[in-house]
Amino acid sequence: MCEPLWTHGARPRVAVVGNPENRRVTLFTEAVRAAGLPVPRVVSWEEVLRSGGADFAADDVVRIDSPGENTAVDRLLRGTEDPTRVEGSARWYAHFMTAVRSLRGGIRLDDPDELAVLFDKRRCHAVLTAAEVPVPFSPTSGPEGSAEASTVGGWDDVRALMREHRMPRLFVKPAHGSSASGVLAVEASGTDRVRATTSVELTPDGRLFNSLKVHRYEREQDIAAIVDALAPDGLHLERWLPKASQRGRAADLRVVVVAGRATHAVVRTSSSPLTNLHLGGSRGDLDVAREAVEAAGARWSDALAVCERAAACFPNTLCVGVDLLPAVGWRRFAVGEVNAFGDLLPRLTGLPGSGAEGRDTYATQVAAVLRRPPSARPPAGVPRARQAGPHVPYRTGNTHASA
């Protein structure tokens, strides 16, 4: 039993850095108020970016939320006037991490150094691999420029790595992308035919735009044009693992892990390789998925344990959303991605036996904050990828947050 975080009648002061108009901030604020706590202080990302940071009291509990879905903030982060453009993710990443490190003081629920890894798919994949979490094979896994990671300068490099590693089917992902932006599911047949499924809309003048419609490209010159345009932002390649299906549609799961425990899960199904709900995917039946796992001779608890092992690689971040890939037959699982802002599952209550029954993802996080004691940083010299156990808040001083 954990000692209470707040003793002698004291109650935490909560702050959130986000976009005030966003439903993420609204849902979190509602959860804080429902717990009987004061209304959180909301610091806007636009304010942080324009003023060069923000200050918090030493005992403020600070949540970092997504900077997405705000045109002004996107313009400041990516340097483009059009928020539907795909390019610019490397600049977004650099500016976002600078903004995160400009927050001073407070007890953080999101570790700045762990956020830096979570928003670099190459580094995140390497951390998961080092912790022996099952993941798809990737020739680009590791820090950019490292000896173990192949560099992708464009489509020619992708084709070469496909041949070298015998990957006729793979995903090409922007290293710093999110919400499937810029992701291509590539399939090669023989030496000449190639097809890509993606949300990217390629214009005649070569510009790339995000679309809510899934596009299929079958001319290699079009696929090459997209990849070549995205390559300067950094690319991550992963072997395409054949996924299990539900009612004839490809299926995967988003599993939310809070304070080290898998608390919420949804099945996502799609007729395309991209299961994201905003791209035409739909929620599947979680009970049917659980029954399929058990019928295959596996254990549902083992599937959730894979997600908890992935989250344990980021012990100082309270909540992550894990994309769990069930293999055909529902017996084996791999982790596709770990998302720092993967908790937006409105009205979904916790899994049976998770301790989050009756609570949504935000209420579950607030409950975890109330029962976890503050802690110092991880012991010096212990690689974070190897640390296990539940989240503890990340405390900073009045300087830029760092490990």
Question: Which short descriptors sum up this protein?
Answer:
single chain; about 400 residues; alpha+beta; six-stranded antiparallel sheet; five-stranded mixed sheet; 18 strands; about 30% helix; globular; disordered N terminus; disordered C terminus
Largest sheet: 6 strands, antiparallel
Q: State the helicity in percent bands.
A: 25-40%
Arithmetic mean pLDDT = 89
Output the radius of gyration.
21 Å
Q: How many E-type strands?
A: 18
Coarse morphology: globular
* Individual helix count: 11
Query: What is the first-to-last residue Cα distance?
Result: 28 Å
Structural class: alpha+beta
Uncertain runs:
1-8, 374-403
Give the H and E element order.
Answer: EHEHEEHHEEHHHEEEEHEEEEEHHEEHE
Task: Tell me what you see in this structure.
This protein is α+β, with helices and mostly antiparallel strands. The chain has eleven helices and 18 strands. Strands 12, 13, 14, 15, 16 and 17 form a six-stranded antiparallel β-sheet that branches. Helix 2 packs parallel to helix 3 and helix 3 (71-78) crosses helix 4 (89-101). The longest helix is centred in the first third of the chain and has 13 residues, at 89-101. It is globular, with a radius of gyration of 21 Å. The protein starts with 12 loop residues before the first strand and ends in an 8-residue tail after the last strand.
